[in-house]
TrEMBL record:
Protein keywords: Dioxygenase, Iron, Metal-binding, Oxidoreductase
Protein name: Taurine dioxygenase
Organism superkingdom: Bacteria
Residue span(s) of domain TauD/TfdA-like: 15-280
Cofactors (names): Fe(2+)
Gene designation per UniProt: tauD
GO function terms (MF aspect): dioxygenase activity
Native source organism of the sequence: Streptomyces shaanxiensis
Family: Belongs to the TfdA dioxygenase family.
Gene3D superfamilies: Clavaminate synthase-like
Cited InterPro entries: AtsK-like, TauD-like_sf, TauD/TfdA-like
């Protein structure tokens, strides 16, 4: 049974849905002081709504953010490649003064074999305006494709490559030595293959699992076919009716299911300062429709 049809724990949270089935705000809670049932409810709400916004978390610092993440799941290091700098190793700091932008549609860290399941992002420094973040619902996007195209993309595999974004950083700033991820130190960004359509391990729903940030090409077709297929999927994924947008306020925290969303941070604030701190929770190996049906 889908979690969307059985929400006993979710109903205990003061939730306002932002759309028919995507995005929600949780009101009146302190992420640092949740009981076990509330933590479970947040986890279930993430699967159901895919992205959650919690306002007014002014007392949350890096330590409390990490501790909250540990109650939701297994916290990874902040990033396979990036140095954590002056923040804890579990935190990935996106600082606009150090090229910390995310202005391309992407799903976090899909260039590894087990991409993160959940991301938790906290606003640390915000510009006076601008810097909104957008999330796309990959399951709704898949379900609104034509039946013939759904059947075709169910069969496809794509390559994900982090070298375009992080290869130079790993080679030059880290001298070829990244962080400990999945028990191994990252020394190179070897491309990996994932199904184009991912079956969610908890809800069983299918969603598109390709993104412009890290997907390089479709396996087994020509370069031109690959480009055409991906352009169609990207355009469909990011249609306005599949997207929810957050205008950040001080104290905001966003949580999203990395297995069923993509996101994009607007870079429209010029040289004004923006800092966001992200943690990620360990995920599993993406499974496509053919494997899931066995």
């Amino acid at each position: 049974m889908s979690i969307l049809s059985e929400r006993p724990a979710v109903a205990e949270l003061p939730i306002t849905a932002l759309g028919p089935g995507f995005g929600a705000e949780i009101h009146g809670i302190d992420l640092a002081r949740l009981d076990d049932d509330q933590v479970l409810a947040v986890r279930e709400a993430l699967v159901a709504y895919k992205v959650l916004f919690v306002r007014g978390q002014h007392g949350l610092d890096d330590t409390a953010q990490i501790e909250f993440g540990r109650r939701l799941g297994e916290v990874t290091v902040g990033h396979p490649v990036h140095d954590s700098g002056d923040v804890p190793p579990e935190v990935y700091s996106l600082d606009s003064q150090d090229n910390g932008f995310a202005d391309v549609w992407h799903t976090d860290v899909t260039f590894v074999r087990r991409p993160p399941a959940i991301s938790v992002l906290r606003a640390v420094v915000l510009p006076p305006n601008g810097g909104d973040t957008n999330w796309a619902d990959s399951q709704l996007a898949y379900e609104s494709l034509s039946p013939g195209l759904r059947a075709y993309v169910d069969t496809l595999t794509a390559v994900h490559d982090g070298s375009r974004e992080f290869g130079y950083y790993l080679a030059q700033r880290r001298q070829g030595k990244g962080n400990l991820w999945e028990g191994e130190v990252f020394t190179e960004l070897t491309p990996v293959e994932h199904p184009v359509v991912r079956v969610h391990p908890e809800s069983g729903r299918k969603g598109l699992f390709v993104n412009p940030g890290f997907t390089s090409h479709i396996v087994g077709v020509s370069e031109y076919e690959s480009r055409g297929i991906l352009d169609i999927l990207y355009a469909h994924l990011t249609k306005p009716e599949h997207v929810v947008r957050n205008r950040w306020q001080p104290g905001d925290v966003a949580l999203w299911d990395n297995r069923s969303t993509a996101h994009y941070a607007n870079r429209d604030y010029g040289d004004r300062h923006r800092v966001m701190h992200r943690i990620t929770l360990r995920g599993d190996t993406p499974v496509g429709p053919a494997t899931a049906s066995r």
